[in-house]
Amino acid sequence: MDGFAHQIIAGIATGGIYASVALALVMIYQATHHVNFAQGEMATLSTFIAWSMVEAGIPYWLAFLGTVVVSFIIGVLVERLLMRPVQNAPVLTHVGVFIGLLLIVGNMTGWIFGYTTKVFPSPFASSGPLMGGLVSAHELGSTAVTLVVLILVFLFFRYTSLGLAMRAAAYNPRSARLVGIRVGWMLALGWGLAAAIGAVAGMMVAPVVFLDPTMMTGILLYAFAGALIGGIDNPLGAVIGGFAVGVLENLAGAYVVGTELKLTVALAIIIGVLVVRPSGLLGRVVTSRV
């Protein structure tokens, strides 16, 4: 029973990281109606930036905040310089840009920082497991950080005028322009927030999986599965789906398929959702008259 409880709690901790990345995917999907395949590579680059700051002697939390700011700026620049020129291009053009961004950022990260695995520090060091051995200090701390980020994002979009403007620009750009909202800059800010949220997820997962240029590949797949479960156009659904995938992955890996085949759980979830309910549990079903 203790082992089962540990898998549940550990799944919630990793699910919080998946929820963060899933939320970032949904934010960009709402703005562009495309999935950013390079979200994981962008988060990995941000994590390497944080590692460089820590190695240079900057205190962890100061490096954490600095990385979030730098990641936000990178996200805005990507939207302004790469996505803005092709905003009215065909779907395949957007897919090509995302794949190109994935390859460029991934290879640039390896070229700058190297391909050797690095140890990323955890700010939640402890002498031993907590809660009777059910959870580690890092799992508890990373869950708390993830929840704080998700709550702040919810409050931002729900109660601030800028957040409401960004939601309006994502849902109905034409009407938003008619009321004076600068839709282009709202979309750029959305990219910046998605990059910043991805950076937080990268910094939380790096102490567990260690730091290398391919660190986020599997995590992006789990996050995509979580976004599909909750609804690729629903931020709350993506968060719920991310936590659900984290728990399902841990339980399936421990009691069903084994740790070597855990990634197949995400693939099975993606296929199952697309076949049974493509809009997800909380997503909108969009119909059009032909």
From TrEMBL:
Keyword Membrane: yes
Topology of this chain in the membrane: Multi-pass membrane protein
Gene Ontology molecular functions: transmembrane transporter activity
Keywords: Amino-acid transport, Cell membrane, Membrane, Transmembrane, Transmembrane helix, Transport
PANTHER family according to UniProt: ABC TRANSPORTER PERMEASE PROTEIN, BRANCHED-CHAIN AMINO ACID TRANSPORT SYSTEM PERMEASE PROTEIN LIVH
Similarity comment: family membership: Belongs to the binding-protein-dependent transport system permease family. LivHM subfamily.
Name this protein carries in UniProt: Amino acid/amide ABC transporter membrane protein 1, HAAT family
Protein species of origin: Belnapia rosea
